[in-house]
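Lecture notes, unit on protein representations.

Consider one protein chain, 117 amino acids long.
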Amino acid sequence: MDATNDEQTELLRNIWKQMVAMDRNLSSRIDQTNVRLDGLNERVDGLNERVDGLNERVDGLNERVDSMATRMQENFARIQRNFERVDARLEAIGGARVDELDTRLTRVEEHVGLRSR
């Protein structure tokens, strides 16, 4: 064997040792990163569960709002029909009859003290 071969062999051994050491260091760092990622994944899963719960609550609230809006529309329609009926009755009674009723009501209010004379 000549000295050059021995020197090259020694250089290759040193390079190999450095590569093995770097591999161990890198593997250790990868393991630490994986542990951190597992922790983050658990936190993300927890957040996803909370978001799912909030979405369910929002869906429930949307259903309630839709139901209330429908009922309000139905009630407003019923009120409108009642106003139309009252208006039709008042027109049928006539303005004179309303004036007569107003006069009689005023007298009753004055009599019981709800209105001053």
